[in-house]
Give the backbone structure.
Amino acid sequence: MHSDNSAEIDIEFHGVTKNFDDVVAVDDVSLSVERGSFFSLLGPSGCGKTTSLRLIAGFEQPTAGEVVIGGQAVNGVPAYRRPVNMVFQHYALFPHLSVADNVGYGLRQRSPRPDSQQLAVSVAEALELVRLSGFERRRTWELSGGQQQRVALARALINRPTVLLLDEPLAALDRKLRQEMQIELQTLQRDVGITFVLVTHDQEEALSMSDKICLMLEGRIVQIGGPRELYDEPKNRYVAGFVGKSNIFSGRVVDSSGDIAAIELDSGRVLRGRPPRGGLAPGRNRVANIAVRPELVHISSADDDTDFSADVEASARVKNRIFLGEQTEYLLEAGDLGDILVLVSKHAEGSSGGFSAGDVVKVGWNVSSALALEEGGADAAEQADKSH
């Protein structure tokens, strides 16, 4: 039942299901996590990502299926006997202990227990790893949120686990510190070379840190892939809407036979886009969607006589403008196309200063920038192939 390349795989789920009474929290999930990778479980509340993490940790046992860590089936193996450590959202540090005592806590519980000199050396190495050398005597309540986060990481890493589990570890931090810690976690993961499994509901966090992302919904896997794959090649509307921002136009299929699919909107306008790998399901008059990322939409002044080369064009009025520093976000009202979101880089706007609310503009995009996607959602959630 195990894959042939199990030596390169740290975690496997084989048809894993977890029920809580009548609630199916994880529904027949199969996946594999490569050794030394940064793997994220992503999705909204209640999608099954935290339960999946707890099944790896040993805090929960599967109702059906098999969990494998490092090539060994661990069903029924308690948490303390698994080669994993976990960093919780609220860190779970001991406020009455110093930083050194917090970090060395796990080692002091071992049998045989390392002597004080060995313990001090191990604690110093762990603190150096997370850039907290010299903080040994501090109390945890004297530290900033980012420093507490690093103490929790040091405490987990000192045991040299096969897998480090991260349960929304950055949720309590402010935006700037969260971004700094994302970089630190990536660097730390590369330095220690062990497998990290992150649970998050924040798609930007998953995109910025992960080698692979497993997007879940209602206990099932919707899509597994690298960040660029999920962003550029979403398999359905749910993925396109959850991972990044998208303009989504819903209609009915009029042609799905070739490399470009055609969707007719309620207004009668036909939009075209590239179907996902494997194409759209055959058949006309089914609900489907055209999705266009806002950074791929062109915008220009309505009276600009220069060539506006786009396969889809429309007149629109600016409803709202948000300056984001390196980009400007426009919300446009475009007649039968409805509202359209556009992201324009600072460089592209140049010295023009952009547009203001109420301005009339031209908006458009090329068919090559548009995707034709099925509805997706819970009914379309499919199990990831083991080759992912």
Observations:
- The chain has a mean pLDDT of 88.
- The two ends are 17 Å apart (CA to CA).
- The chain has ten helices and 20 strands.
- The chain has two domains: 6-231, 294-367.
